[in-house]
């Protein structure tokens, strides 16, 4: 049953890792602007498409 | 009617066709050309007609030629890369984001660009070798995205966002969750072998988790309680800090001496909920700023003419701060005059709407004074600086001591008022319980004494105000009344005097009412009048022209315009004069009383016909609004203008309204101060920079804004002009918020009594505390949320009904 020490320490470490990850992401300003990224992520495909289009017209 | 492919404006007769698409003007067409030739036409697919017609005046950003000014604007500068953060008020849709983030396709010098949509800013990395900052700004202007660069950008501080509350909240939440799991097994108090063996590990882990909660997350409360005690105030943070300290000490004691589990779960839960309340109370409107002063309006640089009228005459771009008395500067059309100056050359027609809210521009003669803050609207000017920027008539206002203070008086909110009594009551109950237990069983004393302090920790009490006010803050925002912070709502509930500015606040800056007085004009004269007005660029002529019926426009035989006086035109042997009274006729019977009016006079063939009087139109429903407010508050009207409008205001407003005219910005401030010295709680409602001092001095300063995206002076709240008539509703909502807080105080006291029952009888076990504390907090949150939503619905609906009744 002493395995509980191992389990406990693992669970605490995992929790701490996520906690630290969260703190770092706040510090880097990831939560400062929560709107623009939601729009931006929809663009990515379109830019590639227009690039391809321009390649086709170049040929 | 066709609409422009780029901006969606209706195309007039001078519309353009290009690439089988309609455009309203050359600017729009150019943007389309630039975008389509760079494979960026997806811009038009993303949103329907998303564009903004570019309107930048040529040379507006010439001051960016000066290295010194550019240096101040750049956030980072090195040989390879420069970073700049620009405010672009025009950003409004996803197409904007897309095109601005693809700027690098338009110029190789731009490395990358990133939009922050809520703040309407664009961050650009560019190479100064390939593209100068001026070129960059001009490129943006060409696309219709003109950046807003003002004097306030020149003393740029480091962007410092305070995120400590988020950190504290996340630490508390993290610890709370983990401690809950760890304390769970012991809730059931099962005598079990494994549990008994491992409970020490669990307890010490909980102790470890609670350390950052007490020493980091809860530090705000200790500091605030200490400050309160130092200044002799028992604020709400005193019992909270006391509760947290006792909780921590007793729990640690129990763990160390193996007496029990302690209350670590309640402790971390308490701190977590309290911080959550604080977090909820904050609601920032990132696109609004409540801290602006004149610097946000003024340009950063101007064109100075060095050595005028000599051979070495040259133009130089200088910072506004470097202007000295006697300097000659150049003001272009639509530029703001940053200093008090004397007009030297040019046709000055100054729009002071920024300052006073007055919509009709003033014409100024050569040699006369132009005050800082006015905007030139009729072409190029040359002016001589009379005073440097900090000492001008308007900006002197900011030297007043109110602008040094960061806080406004000592406002004691409801929570802190109650907490004084609360703290005293708790302390006496715990002492009483100690005395009683001394006779029953002295060994129980420490347990009971601490239990009282723990259970009495006013968590629910402290949550009542933040959640009610936070909720109302959001509701106000939904109704276009934007508050700086939640505290303002409590202040609003205490207001007993409301001061209104007249121009721009009671009157609308958009609409003008035009009435005609005098002999009726014949058809012939009307058409002559129309044709003449059409030829003039004077704003009064333009607004008159738009209102008059459009009958046949004829070609004029001759047309002359005298600056600041009027114009004369001939057609078909008829002559017409339009303009100032002294210009159109030689008669001398112009009554003194009517001098205060803004009027356009007309004479035909040297015969005086009549005048068009322009009046600012009052906002809808102000009579009704004043009548409603009058019941509970003293009302005042302050105006910087002369008393020409006194009569019509008296007719419109209730008799108890006191009016003062000819008030300078300083006078307005003093007026508010005097009211406050009489013991009144004052709300100032204004709009222009001239109200800035009064807004700052008042308990609640509200700015009326026709367009939320346009800057407003420093204030506590911004009210969208469209909901001006709802002010009385906002007041009653604030009052009902006050009532809700009081009710929730009762509710939380009820919980405290139950808890005290457990505590004084010595039955407070960790599980009771762990249930009671979150339960009381959550029910307070639920109660305040539901009841504030409910009363908001009731109040907003009810008054719109009564308004309809009033109209019919």
Present the secondary structure layout.
The complex is a heterodimer of chains A (59) and B (808).
Chain A lengths: L2 H25 L8 H5 L3 H15 L1
Chain B lengths: L15 E3 L2 E3 L2 H12 L4 H5 L20 H7 L2 E2 L4 E6 L6 H8 L8 E7 L4 E6 L6 H10 L21 H24 L5 H25 L1 H12 L6 H20 L7 H18 L19 E6 L7 E6 L8 E4 L9 E6 L1 E4 L1 H4 L5 E3 L4 E2 L4 E2 L4 E5 L28 H27 L4 H11 L3 H20 L2 E3 L3 H8 L2 E5 H5 E12 L4 H13 L3 H9 L10 E5 L3 E6 L2 E6 L1 H4 L13 E7 L2 E12 L3 H9 L3 E5 L7 H7 L5 E3 L4 H13 L4 E5 L5 H6 L2 E6 L11 E4 L6 H34 L5 H42 L1
Parallel strand pairs in B: 17-24, 17-26, 24-25, 26-27, 27-28
Antiparallel strand pairs in B: 1-2, 3-4, 4-6, 5-6, 7-8, 7-9, 9-15, 10-13, 10-15, 11-12, 11-14, 16-28, 18-23, 19-20, 20-21, 21-22, 22-23
Helix pairs in contact in B: 6-7, 6-10, 7-9, 7-10, 8-9, 9-10, 9-13, 10-14, 10-25, 12-13, 13-24, 14-24, 14-25, 15-24, 24-25
Structure description:
- Chain A is mainly α.
- Chain A is 76% helix and 0% strand.
- The termini of chain A are far apart.
- Chain A contains three helices and no strands.
- Chain A is elongated and about 55 Å long.
- Residues 48-59 of chain A have low confidence and may be disordered.
- Chain A has helices at 3-27, 36-40, 44-58.
- Chain B is an alpha+beta fold and 808 residues long.
- Among the domains of chain B are: 1-53, no CATH class; 163-282; 306-399, Calcium-transporting ATPase, cytoplasmic transduction domain A (Distorted Sandwich); 479-498 and 641-731, HAD superfamily/HAD-like (Rossmann fold), CATH 3.40.50.1000; 509-618, Calcium-transporting ATPase, cytoplasmic domain N, CATH 3.40.1110.10.
- Helices cover 44% and strands 18% of the residues of chain B.
- Chain B contains 25 helices and 28 strands.
- In chain B, the strands form six sheets. In chain B, strands 16-28-27-26-17-24-25 form a seven-stranded mixed sheet, with helices on both faces. Chain B has a six-stranded antiparallel sheet with strand order 8-7-9-15-10-13, with no helix packed on it.
- In chain B, helix 6 (164-187) runs antiparallel to helix 10 (264-281) and helix 14 (459-478) runs antiparallel to helix 24.
- The longest helix of chain B is centred in the C-terminal third of the chain and has 42 residues, at 766-807.
- Chain B is elongated, with a radius of gyration of 33 Å.
- Chain B starts with 15 loop residues before the first strand and ends with a helix.
- Classes of the chains: A mainly alpha (59), B alpha+beta (808).
- The A-B interface holds A 1, 4-5, 8, 12, 15, 19, 22-23, 26-27, 29, 31-33, 35-36, 39-40, 42-43, 46-47, 49-51, 53-54 and B 39-40, 42, 46, 94, 97-98, 101-102, 114-119, 161, 163, 166-167, 170, 174, 178, 194, 197-198, 201, 205.
């Amino acid at each position: 049953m002493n395995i509980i020490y191992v389990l406990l320490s693992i669970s605490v470490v995992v929790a701490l890792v996520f906690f630290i990850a969260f703190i770092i992401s706040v510090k880097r300003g990831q939560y400062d602007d929560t709107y623009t990224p939601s729009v931006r992520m929809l663009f990515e495909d379109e830019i590639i498409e227009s690039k391809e289009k321009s390649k086709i017209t170049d040929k | 009617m066709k609409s422009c492919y780029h901006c969606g404006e209706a195309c007039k007769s001078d519309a353009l066709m290009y690439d089988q698409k309609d455009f309203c003007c050359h600017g729009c067409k150019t943007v389309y050309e630039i975008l389509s030739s760079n494979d960026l036409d997806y811009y038009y697919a993303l949103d329907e007609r998303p564009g903004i017609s570019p309107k930048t005046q040529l040379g507006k950003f010439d001051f960016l030629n000066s290295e010194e000014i550019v240096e101040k604007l750049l956030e980072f500068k090195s040989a390879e890369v420069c970073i700049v953060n620009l405010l672009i008020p025009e950003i409004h849709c996803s197409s904007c984001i897309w095109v601005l983030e693809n700027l690098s396709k338009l110029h190789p010098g731009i490395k990358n660009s990133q939009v922050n949509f809520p703040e309407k800013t664009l961050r650009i990395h560019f190479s100064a070798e390939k593209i100068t900052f001026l070129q960059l700004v001009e490129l943006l202007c060409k696309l219709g995205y003109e950046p807003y660069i003002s004097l306030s950008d020149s003393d740029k501080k480091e962007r410092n966002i305070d995120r400590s509350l988020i950190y504290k909240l996340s630490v508390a939440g993290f610890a709370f969750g983990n401690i809950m799991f760890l304390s769970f097994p012991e809730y059931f108090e099962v005598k079990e072998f494994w549990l008994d063996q491992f409970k020490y590990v669990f307890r010490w882990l909980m102790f470890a988790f609670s350390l950052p909660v007490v020493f980091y997350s809860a530090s705000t409360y200790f500091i605030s309680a200490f400050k309160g005690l130092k200044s002799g105030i028992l604020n709400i943070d005193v019992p909270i800090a006391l509760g947290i300290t006792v909780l921590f000490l007793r729990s640690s004691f129990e763990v160390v001496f193996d007496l029990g589990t302690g209350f670590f779960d309640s402790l971390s839960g308490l701190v977590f909920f309290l911080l959550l309340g604080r977090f909820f109370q904050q609601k920032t409107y990132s696109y609004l700023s409540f801290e602006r002063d004149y610097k946000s309006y003024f340009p950063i640089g101007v064109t100075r003419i060095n050595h005028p009228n000599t051979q070495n005459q040259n133009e130089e771009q200088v910072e506004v701060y470097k202007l000295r008395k006697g300097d000659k500067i150049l003001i272009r059309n639509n530029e703001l005059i940053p200093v008090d100056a004397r007009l030297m050359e040019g046709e000055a027609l100054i729009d002071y709407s920024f300052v006073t809210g007055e919509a009709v521009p003033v014409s100024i003669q050569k040699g006369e004074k132009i005050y800082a803050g006015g905007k030139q609207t009729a072409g190029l000017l040359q002016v001589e600086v009379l005073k440097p920027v900090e000492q001008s008539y308007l900006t002197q206002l900011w030297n007043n001591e109110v602008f040094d203070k960061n806080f406004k008086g000592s406002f004691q909110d409801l929570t802190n008022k109650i907490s004084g009594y609360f703290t005293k009551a708790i302390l006496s109950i715990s002492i009483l319980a100690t005395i009683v237990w001394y006779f029953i069983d002295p060994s129980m004393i420490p347990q009971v004494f601490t239990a009282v302090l723990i259970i009495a920790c006013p968590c629910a009490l402290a949550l009542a105000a933040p959640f009610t006010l936070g909720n109302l803050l959001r509701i106000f925002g939904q109704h276009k009344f934007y508050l700086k912070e939640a505290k303002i709502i409590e202040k609003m509930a205490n207001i007993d005097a409301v001061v209104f500015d007249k121009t721009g606040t009671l009157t609308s800056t958009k609409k003008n009412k035009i009435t005609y007085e005098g002999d009726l004009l014949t058809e012939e004269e009307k058409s002559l009048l129309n044709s003449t007005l059409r030829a003039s660029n004077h704003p009064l002529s333009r607004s008159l022209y738009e209102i008059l019926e459009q009958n046949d426009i004829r070609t004029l035989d001759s047309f002359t315009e005298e600056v600041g006086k009027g114009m004369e035109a001939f057609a078909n042997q008829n002559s017409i004069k339009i303009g100032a009274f002294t210009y159109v006729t030689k008669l001398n019977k112009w009554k003194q009383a009517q001098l205060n009016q803004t009027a356009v006079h007309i004479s035909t063939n040297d015969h005086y016909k009549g005048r068009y009087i322009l009046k600012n139109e009052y906002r809808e429903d102000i009579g009704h609004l004043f009548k409603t407010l009058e019941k509970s508050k003293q009302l005042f009207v302050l105006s910087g203008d002369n008393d020409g409008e006194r009569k019509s205001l008296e007719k419109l407003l209730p008799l108890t309204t006191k009016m003062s005219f000819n008030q300078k910005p300083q006078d307005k401030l003093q007026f508010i101060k005097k009211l406050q010295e009489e013991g009144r709680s004052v709300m100032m409602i204004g709009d222009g920079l001239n109200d800035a001092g009064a807004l700052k001095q008042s308990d609640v300063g509200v700015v009326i804004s026709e367009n939320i995206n346009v800057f407003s002076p420093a204030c506590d709240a911004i009210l969208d002009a469209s909901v001006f008539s709802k002010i009385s509703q906002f007041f009653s909502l604030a009052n009902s918020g006050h009532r809700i807080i009081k009710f929730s105080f009762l509710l939380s006291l009820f919980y405290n009594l139950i808890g005290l029952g457990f505590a004084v009888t010595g039955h407070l076990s960790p599980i009771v505390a762990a249930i009671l504390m979150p339960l009381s907090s959550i029910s307070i949150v639920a109660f305040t949320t539901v009841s504030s939503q409910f009363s908001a619905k009731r109040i907003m609906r009810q008054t719109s009904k009564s308004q309809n009744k009033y109209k019919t």
